[in-house]
Design a protein that fits this description.
The chain is about 40% helix and about 15% strand. The protein contains 20 helices and 15 strands. The strands form 3 sheets. A 7-stranded parallel sheet has the order 3-2-1-4-5-8-9, with helices on both faces. The protein has a 6-stranded parallel sheet with strand order 12-11-10-13-14-15, with helices on both faces. A two-stranded antiparallel sheet has the order 6-7. Helix 13 crosses helix 18. Bound molecules: uridine-5'-diphosphate-xylopyranose. The site of uridine-5'-diphosphate-xylopyranose has 27 residues, from helix 1, helix 15 and helix 16. Pfam families: UDPGT.
């Protein structure tokens, strides 16, 4: 049994950009509290990050450079990679069912072996705690096997946690199919007063995702502690309801106010430097457009968006991921489009998002509502136009548009039209029409600041979490 006084956590994110980023912040924060951290990436993720940070680039260092220099940073963070069970060239896009099945069934073998090796009593500093993403289906089994503490890290809001946790209720009430065209209200989930069925996560897009979420939310019930990237004051009823059953701490926003200065970049793709372009644009005049790292957008929507952006006449940076359609296609945009918008539109395959949205020239974010994008946008005081695509993004939109009122909805119907895109952009980028949204963002941003201050709830909960963890470990 590996129980030494020195707290040493093995930290493992789901192998996706939107999970790796917040987990790095968590690792740094825990290391600053005296924890030894062993941070695990899959070999595939490691190779992507390495490729994205060629030595000649001026971009921030890749993870292993920082994490393997504990003396320089003063933190003891070690970095290891493991196989996810697939060859490097294997297609891991979100619709790749074999890969998702592998995450459910095969990946745990590799983690099990690693934990077994690192938890041995005769190791120097054996690990005594497993901090794993809530979306894994096996952490409690491995933690139990090696008698180490299991912390589940939920990178998304409590609303989404509650909905996934009560999957059985959704099924019993017939909310298990596609919700897009439904208008009814769901009011039977504990801690969630009401949510439109169209805002429910699209978890049934295929049976493997459903299985993954179902199993993961069975496993999380056995965690010693659950921590989540949200804020008590912003989701009080939902969090209180979860806390009735579990030790659940809202410790968000896990990124701190100076997150844009972080010198570690974990981007899976090379970042296009937009700074010079932004420097030449007036304050608040640029709309940033991005659909995150995994979701696919259909070609019709891309075209309507392209036309809407042109008609809006605003400046924009549009992150058009190379695989946004789910296949490589070079000419997604209308012929001559880039030429036509070249003075006011910059289209890039990937960028350093925090650096872009924190630039004073950026005045709005048209987003798929990935949770990290929502949090980062609020930190930068930037209101949103929401165009959620899959999974939690629909429920995140509820928080953004209806609860906190820091954004507006783009698509009222299934598809989007260029006229809708134009008018919503005009509304958001006009300081008069979006005045209330901007005030609301400033307020939520202040809540972020306050919650991380000495007596703020997230700070208090984080310290409590650390104390309890140390006690459990010792
Ligand atoms: C998905 C889910 O939608 C999200 O809610 C969940 O928490 C993680 O998985 P993703 O599509 O990756 O997320 O979006 P998001 O959560 O917004 O995370 C994307 C991350 O990539 C952000 O931290 C963002 O700053 C970064 N990013 C995005 C870049 O650095 N550059 C880009 O060009 C685009």
């Amino acid at each position: 049994m590996a129980k030494k006084l020195h707290p040493h956590a093995l930290v493992i994110p789901c192998p996706y950009q939107g999970h790796i980023n917040p987990t790095i912040h968590l690792a740094l924060k825990l290391a600053s509290k005296g924890f030894i951290i062993t941070f695990i990436n899959t070999q595939f993720i490691h190779s992507q990050i390495t490729k994205a940070h060629s030595p000649s680039s001026s971009e921030p260092s890749g993870l292993e450079n920082i994490f393997s220099k504990p003396c320089e940073s003063g933190l003891d963070i070690r970095y290891l990679t493991i196989s996810d069970g697939f060859p490097l060239e294997f297609d891991r896009n979100m619709n790749s069912l074999p890969f998702l099945e592998g995450l459910i069934n095969g990946f745990s073998n590799y983690v099990d072996k690693l934990v077994g090796d690192l938890a041995k009593e005769d190791c120097v500093d054996p690990i005594n705690c497993l901090i794993a993403d809530t979306f894994f289906v096996w952490p409690s089994i491995i933690a139990k096997k090696y008698e180490i503490v299991h912390v589940s890290f939920f990178t998304e809001p409590a609303l989404v946690f509650a909905l996934y946790y009560h999957l059985d209720l959704l099924e019993e009430n017939g909310h298990s199919g596609s919700h897009e065209n439904r208008k009814d209200i769901v009011d039977y989930i504990p801690g969630v007063k009401s949510i439109k069925s169209s805002d429910l996560p699209s978890l049934y897009q295929n049976s493997v995702v459903h299985q993954l979420i179902y199993k993961a939310f069975q496993d999380v019930r056995k965690a010693d502690i659950i921590i989540a990237n949200t804020v008590q004051e912003l989701e009080p009823e939902t969090i209180t309801s979860i806390q009735e059953k579990h030790k659940f701490y809202a410790i968000g926003p896990i990124v701190s106010a100076n997150f844009t200065e972080l010198t570690i970049s974990s981007s899976l793709w090379s970042e296009h430097d937009c700074t010079q372009w932004l420097d030449a644009k007036p304050r608040g005049s640029v709309l940033y457009v991005s659909f995150g790292s995994v979701a696919l957008v259909n070609k019709e929507d891309i075209l309507e968006l392209a036309h809407g952006l042109m008609l809006s006449e605003v400046n924009f940076i549009w992150v058009l991921r190379f695989n946004v359609l789910g296949q490589d296609e070079n000419d997604i945009l209308p012929v001559g489009y880039k030429e036509k918008v070249k003075d006011r539109g910059l289209i890039v395959p990937w960028c350093n998002q925090p650096r872009v949205i924190s630039h004073s020239a950026v005045g709005g974010f048209l987003s798929h509502c990935g949770w990290n994008s929502v949090v980062e946008s609020i930190w930068c005081g930037v209101p949103l136009i929401c165009s959620p695509l899959v999974t939690d993004q629909l429920a995140n939109r509820k928080l953004v548009v209806y609860d906190w009122k820091v954004g507006i909805n783009l698509r009222d119907e299934e598809s989007i039209t260029r006229e809708e895109v134009r008018s919503k952009i005009k509304y958001l980028m006009n300081e008069e029409t979006s005045n209330n949204l901007r005030k609301n963002v400033a307020q939520v941003k202040e809540t972020f600041h306050n919650t991380l201050a000495t007596n703020g709830s997230s700070n208090v909960y984080f310290n409590k979490f650390v104390e309890e963890l140390k006690i459990k470990i010792s």
